Every structure is written in C-alpha cells, then in structure tokens.
Amino acid sequence: MDSIIINYRNVVERKLKEYADFINNDDQVDVELVFDREHHHYLLVEAGWQNGYRIYGTLLHIDIINNKLWIQHDGTEEGIADELVAEGIPKDHIVLAFKSSEGRKMTDFAIS
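Request: output the structure for the sequence above.
Response:
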C-alpha cells in the first residue's frame, strides 16, 4: 500500500478518535467510529436518545480518493481541514467535498 495512504489513514483515524473521546460523554448516545480501510472510508457517527429525542447522524466523513483526503461531511464547529493541515497534510491534498466545485475554487484547498 502506498505510504501516503497509510500516513493519511493514520492521521484521519487519530483525529476521529480524538473527536470521539471529546464528545463521548453521554450514556444514552453512542459515538461510533467506522473505519473501512479497504475502501478508505472513515466516519464518526452518533446514535442514541437524548431527552426523548432520537439522535443519529454523521459528524465527520472523510474518504481517501486518489491520494487526497475528501472531507465529505464536517459537522464540527471549527472544521477539521485546518487540523489536518496542522498534522502535515498539504492543503492541495484536502478536498472540501461538502462544497460545490465552484465553492471549492474560493478556498485554499484542492478543487478535486
């Protein structure tokens, strides 16, 4: 396996675990890490109940496609892209897939 993919996978898994540890403080809501290493999909999901309301959703979803990190969904307050840059991932290897291709052109990150 390509060393870039292994490095990116390790960084993404570590960051998602950090988020999971930070938000995993509710006995009624499970925080699930979903890592599909074979197909390069990485998700952080919440599922459970809180005050009588169903809680379910993906907080973070990152794929590795063509040796780039594609942030499919980012439900964090600050945004994970800058954290990935701080971990040594070049901006031109991060795609903000949750933005349209036109919207991506207005960022410092990769278009595709």
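The longest helix spans residues 3-23.
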